[in-house]
Amino acid sequence: MATTSASYFSAAFVFLVALNFLSFQVMAASGHAPNDSDYLGFMLNLEYLDGEFYSYGVFGNDLDSISPNLSQGGPRPIGGQKANLDPLVSEIIKEFAYEQVGHIRAITQATGGFPRPLINFSRALFSLLVDLAVGYPLLPPFDPYANTVNYLIAAQALNYDGVVGYVYINANLNTDAANRLGASLLGMKAGQNAVVRALLYERANQTVAPYNLTVADIVSRIAEFGNKVTRGGLEEGIIVPITLGAENRTVTNVLSAILSIPITVGDENRTVTNVLSADVNSLVHARTPCEILRILYGTGYEGLYGGFFPKEQMAKLQRSALSLLEIPISKSTLSL
Ligand SMILES: *[C@@H]1O[C@H](CO)[C@@H](O)[C@H](O)[C@H]1NC(C)=O
Ligand SMILES: *[C@@H]1O[C@H](CO)[C@@H](O)[C@H](O)[C@H]1NC(C)=O
Ligand SMILES: *[C@@H]1O[C@H](CO)[C@@H](O)[C@H](O)[C@H]1NC(C)=O
Ligand SMILES: *[C@@H]1O[C@H](CO)[C@@H](O)[C@H](O)[C@H]1NC(C)=O
Ligand SMILES: *[C@@H]1O[C@H](CO)[C@@H](O)[C@H](O)[C@H]1NC(C)=O
Ligand SMILES: *[C@@H]1O[C@H](CO)[C@@H](O)[C@H](O)[C@H]1NC(C)=O
Ligand SMILES: *[C@@H]1O[C@H](CO)[C@@H](O)[C@H](O)[C@H]1NC(C)=O
């Protein structure tokens, strides 16, 4: 089974996942504590991911076409293409692509960076993600590049992980310089995600043609699917039950926030726990690197690369230190 895309977890795909175990190597962690460069390096992967998706969406080309050699010679992404965007969204995504050039440069200047990992943006991969999220195969297959709303749905699914990733890593950074950089990057990433979610919210009741599903339906099913695959349980759609809305006074959820998140830092375990307390403070969710890898690898397991990052380069932080962040999941516990 060569295709990495068929590996998102779901009852129907468990047999494919089993086959995937044969073609992916489980990585061992070397066991040293992650430092600031490791954490920011992990986020650099996500900055490349978002940046390339924006760059292909508006220019039909990679970030090197904006800033020569930004990728440091990393392989060109697979399957990206220019999206059929309306003029307003096209301008916004173009700005995001330029912003991503700056973010990649900033992390590279601070940490040395590394060449862009191989990224897979093929339509088939997005289509599988959406099929698994909605629970049945959409016909024709979901195409993220076909129109504005499809592209926004896909962009939200990707850039949300950047927001929650920064929330997690920022709580673990040690130096002032890294803290300043992490906070600035979180600000921008959260802003990009909020703009995309607001654009989706504006279209919430619109049907995603030709499917019998609204934008709000698909976004919340992707969120629920992400929670299932990451085993994190934190992401929400753009319209929610009132008990999940800010201060219990709204069903809109343009910004996906959560009940308070106690963050324990200062020891090697560095856990972020999501406690559903009565104390609703509208704080942004956190996702650990492991949780993010489970969904972006498309395997449900942080030790098995695939999906959007089909090669091992993504595993910089993971190789060095991830075993300290979370107890590795054994294969036998993988089914959801
Ligand atoms: C990219 O994803 C597509 C769709 O899942 C898959 O067919 C293809 O093999 C993937 N490419 C790589 C290099 O993993
Ligand atoms: C951080 O750890 C990495 C290995 O994961 C190492 O290559 C790098 O030199 C370390 N950086 C600092 C500033 O200690
Ligand atoms: C591109 O970046 C790589 C890695 O930093 C470097 O080795 C190479 O010389 C650069 N190429 C150009 C044309 O600048
Ligand atoms: C969506 O439809 C619901 C119920 O019909 C309505 O209350 C809400 O205002 C609509 N939202 C948007 C963003 O159009
Ligand atoms: C579309 O979905 C609605 C609500 O889920 C359902 O009532 C309706 O029968 C569906 N229509 C078609 C053509 O599938
Ligand atoms: C981390 O968690 C493990 C498992 O719960 C525990 O055995 C270990 O003592 C903890 N390490 C620290 C430094 O608290
Ligand atoms: C909102 O409702 C939930 C569930 O009923 C409750 O636990 C929570 O305390 C309420 N939040 C506020 C701010 O009233």
Automatic annotation (TrEMBL):
The keyword Signal applies. Keywords: Signal. Residues 1-28 form the signal peptide. The keyword Signal applies. InterPro entries: Pigment-catalase-like. It comes from the Eukaryota. This is Desiccation-related protein PCC13-62. It comes from Malus baccata.
